[in-house]
Amino acid sequence: DAGVIQSPRHEVTEMGQEVTLRCKPISGHNSLFWYRQTMMRGLELLIYFNNNVPIDDSGMPEDRFSAKMPNASFSTLKIQPSEPRDSAVYFCASSLDRAPGERPQHFGDGTRLSIL
Amino acid sequence: DAKTTQPTSMDCAEGRAANLPCNHSTISGNEYVYWYRQIHSQGPQYIIHGLKNNETNEMASLIITEDRKSSTLILPHATLRDTAVYYCIVRDYLTGTASKLTFGTGTRLQVTL
Questions:
Q1: CA B105 to CA B69: how far, in whole Å?
Q2: Per-residue pLDDT tens digits for B75-92
Q3: β-pairing verdict for A88-95 and A31-38
Q4: How far off is chain A from B62, nearest CA to CA, in Å?
Q5: Do the beta carbons of residue A30 and residue A106 sit within 8 Å?
Q6: Which residues of B sit within 8 Å Cβ distance of A?
Q7: Is A46 near chain B, with CB under 8 Å?
Q8: DSSP label of B12
Q9: Three-state DSSP class for A43?
Q10: pLDDT digits (tens, 9 = 90+) for A39-92
């Protein structure tokens, strides 16, 4: 079975440009998570969705960041305008929340973003 | 979610069992213990989880103390490919919708020849 698929794997762009990261969760999963990982801050949750509805976006750093989930098989994380401090590895994860406790999250391979 | 404490780093010889401890002294009755690992440049990988009974799967075993204040992840025969950062996370299981994982700094396991 295909896992969580993220694209692109690597993105290098100049400051001020719009960046769009994409994620396809595992088919049948009903929750989707966006994380960011840096050396300084480690892995931190940005936002998560349940049944395509944003549940908690308290981790989104500022208004430059936005995330959407138009359907169960696709999500985007957009940064506009991008800044050098946004450079990080961005991970998407999905899970099937079918019962209390049975919620292991499955992660994609990440997008390594560099803002020059 | 309850906070966890793990050693910063550990070494293990290849072929030997790797025992990774985790303290979660403030865990509540509603919280599971989850273990993930992250191999360099890859996304975190789910390993195992449990509530109060010991658990085993094809990757590892999870031993939870009777008072549930600590646990140990056991990799029975460590290989070089098990070199990674291992995260112990406790997480409420009664949340009606998805609940988030809070990653700490984890234990960096180095498996050596």
A1: 19
A2: 999 999 999 999 999 887
A3: antiparallel
A4: 15
A5: no
A6: 32, 34, 38, 42-46, 49, 51, 91, 93-95, 97-105
A7: no
A8: E
A9: strand
A10: 998 899 999 998 999 988 989 988 999 999 999 999 999 999 999 999 999 999
